[in-house]
Amino acid sequence: MVFSLVLLLLGFVLLVYGADKLVEAASSIAAGLSIPNSVIGLTVVAFGTSAPELSVNVMAAVEGSGEMVMANVLGSNIFNGLVILGLCALVVPLTVKSLTTWIEVPLSFLAASLVWIVGSDRWLDGAAIDLVSRSEGLVLLLFFIIFLGYSIAVAKNAEALPDEVPVLKMKPIRAVFWLIIGLAGLVIGGNFIVTNAIFLAQSFGLSERVIGLTIVSIGTSLPELATSLAAVKKKKVDIAIGNVVGSNIFNVFFILGLSSTIYPVDVTAGTFLDILMNGVAGLLLFVFIFSGKGRMLERWEGGIFLLLYLVYLGYLLFY
Known about the structure:
Layout: H1 2-32, H2 37-62, H3 66-91, E1 94-95, H4 99-120, E2 130-132, H5 134-155, H6 172-204, H7 208-220, H8 222-233, H9 237-262, E3 265-267, H10 271-290, E4 296-297, H11 299-318
Antiparallel strand pairs: 1-4, 2-3
Helix pairs in contact: 1-2, 1-6, 2-3, 2-5, 2-6, 2-9, 3-7, 3-8, 3-9, 3-10, 3-11, 4-5, 4-9, 4-10, 5-9, 6-7, 8-9
């Protein structure tokens, strides 16, 4: 068991390191191909912060662990929405300014609603278990293509994206080398996490769902947490909000879509609570930001987010 814990922690280190090197190398290659800096920020960098979730879910899907797939997607989105935005709002009230965030916040709520639809449609017919099928996965991927097209279109608007994304210049051979190293870190780290998380869940008598919603999802959300807190400290609150809602959209449309296309994802009755919490988090963000005059997430609202997550976490672990 101790060895499995060590491998699990090593998996998280490899994931974060691999994602970081992947972003550096891919950004350098993209800049060398004269791709605009703003497009790099909305595609390569956004992909990099969600790469840990993608790696873990693809590994889980290949191994047929649908419970881990859904738990990681929902757990990451709940952690992103309630904990990361909650902490950021406590540091500095988060004001919505850019056109990007104005559209992405409603899109994140739409993504949460789609998880509800694809994850509970068979329950309405009286089935004991639901399934995110391959066809539903393809629909989610179609939404992702639309979202990606929108992101690239917005990237051409200098007013919507005033901040430059730092790009580390590398020689092409070096960039390709680190690209391969980054991908290897994601693959190996993802494999370590899935394999050992399942083993630990069985050892402690916990379900894969609970492990996925807690340890795995929190660990894979570390890049979003680091990026958002760094942005808030620099008073770039739009980046903090955009990073979280963009990651949540990416998790549902691309990661859940791709995972369920590889292997249909089982949705057990216990997952209904997680789907509900994900929807509540998306709805509260929508209501808090677009109600009132300030168009912002205030400190007390961030406190509500954190309190709600602690109650949810306590329920998962003790009930």
